[in-house]
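Team,

Forwarding the record for the chain on the shared tracking sheet. I've put the sequence and predicted structure together so nobody has to dig through attachments.
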Amino acid sequence: MISFECNPITYFLQKPEMSTGNISAVNTEFILIGFPGLEGYQHWLTIPFSVMYILAIVGNILLICIVNLEPNLHTPMYTFLCVLAVVDIGLCTSTIPKMLQIFWQKACSISFEGCFIQMFFIHFLSSMESSILAVMAYDRYVAIYNPLLYTSILTKAKMAKIMGVLFARCFILAGLVPVLASMLPYCSANTIQHCFCDHMAVAKLACKDITMNSYYGLVVAFVIAGTDVTFILFTYVMILRAVSKLGSKAARVKAFNTCGSHLFVIMYFYTTILFTFVTYRFGKNVPPRIHVMFAVLYLLVPPMLNPIVYGVRTKEIRQGFRKHFLRKNINPNDK
């Protein structure tokens, strides 16, 4: 295997046949440079990104284990939370290991097929995350408005149908993004100004008009993320209205704190993902490294925060952790 720095000029000198002609015919790789303009400092970035990645993986695995080990947590709410944890693990794992490999080993190349496979998982899993957050908001709405009918409304059959519809929506809409990008002709440059195979970062290398790709990417973003965030905000407004009517002040404060934490994570996810989509198409004055940083953080920070917000702040999850991992006897009245 040829070792090289993340420098497209050096790489082309090593393989002169790739500097001209149709790249798709003579070359089988793209070159990921990481953070444009920060190449000399990227090895320092491995420290915070590695810590965040480890926290995300460990936190979500613990969450899945606790829910599966604790019979009391086999409810719709925690089932959706487990699905979210699985998606979070896949989302950050689809990008961060390769990014760290670029920073540590200068292993900047990625095959054409590998690039579009990575692109598929990024778009599919981020769309699934958005969809699951919307379903979890609906779950809380049902639990507050119809607590006595909660389990009869959200049966296993209905949950399976909901997840099946969401899976199909994300697979079809998001799955077409890498398909359309892979059909473009790539005639000259193959250096991607990014840490991973972002749709528009790759499409801009094509020697063909990419207007359709750009508009389709925006349509997918607004159809999935736009619909989900509107539904989430509407649902939380209804939830907060119900919470404000609670007789106990302590119950209201607890509910508001919980909703506030959830909304913070949700809004962070949607703000960064929309920023990434829009600036790649219209933000010509945004420095590339800023755009790349936001793109990486929207794939890494939510998977790291979700186990904290939905796990650590939930009494039943904390008790399950102490019971199964610390082997402590649990008092039902513990907070």
